[in-house]
Amino acid sequence: MTSRNTVQRSIIEDELRRLANHPTADEVYEAVHVEHPSIGRATVYRTLGKLSDEGKIGRVRINNGADRFDHQTFAHYHVRCTCCGRVDDVMIPVLGDVDEVAARASGYQITSHSLQFDGICPACQEDLATTA
Amino acid sequence: MTSRNTVQRSIIEDELRRLANHPTADEVYEAVHVEHPSIGRATVYRTLGKLSDEGKIGRVRINNGADRFDHQTFAHYHVRCTCCGRVDDVMIPVLGDVDEVAARASGYQITSHSLQFDGICPACQEDLATTA
DNA sequence: CTTTTTGCAAACCCTTTGCAAGACA
DNA sequence: TGTCTTGCAAAGGGTTTGCAAAAAG
Question: Is CATH 3.40.630.30 the classification given to domain A77-131?
């Protein structure tokens, strides 16, 4: 069950790092497809999944939307623009004690939390201001 | 664009309040379907959506899973059991200042945040303890 | 009588899966 | 060689939508 180094795997990982900005699996697929039309969609989904399971990349689960993949792996939060859908990093300190507090409040054994912000990105704020 | 009071609407809302425990739209549909086989799935999805848009019920977006609906409408957080999938309330104080902090950190105009916990519910903890 | 809502089925998005062929170690 | 991975197409879960008929105001 060891991971093999295939051509596809490194192409996909490279493309994710090139795109940099939290692409969906499908966006990675589209980008890869331009140069390598033979690489299938399923391979991209499978490979991104494996890479994130192995901790080599991050997976950002978005409420009500496709998962996004992150070339960075350290813990941080994300914000999604409700106008254009883009997703950006939110560089604020990770909540240290909420898991413990939530555990006491719920009786659950907490393994993780995810905090997602929704809002309007700077570009869309501009657009709204000039349109109005 | 005013909301009309239809039979289906009140049946669906009543059923949600009876179920109480964060059902998915499909679970509400199944429950409604028992007594009212003529009510269609699309009606349940549409009605729950409208009710939550109107603020009469809550919608809980679950990472990587079907949306759930909540008969309670005040702001609170949720935890999902990674074993059995159940979703419970987490009655901890709502984070008051994170939106502002996130706005400063990201340049976004933040409209909301959602915090979801993942963990193991008391029942599954039992099961794991006795099985191991 | 006008507008919303319903029920149905089909479409939709995102993702996973079965399988035979191909690539890695 | 033995096992993992690929590519394809089909299936899957969750949800939305087009449309004509029915119901609300």
Answer: no
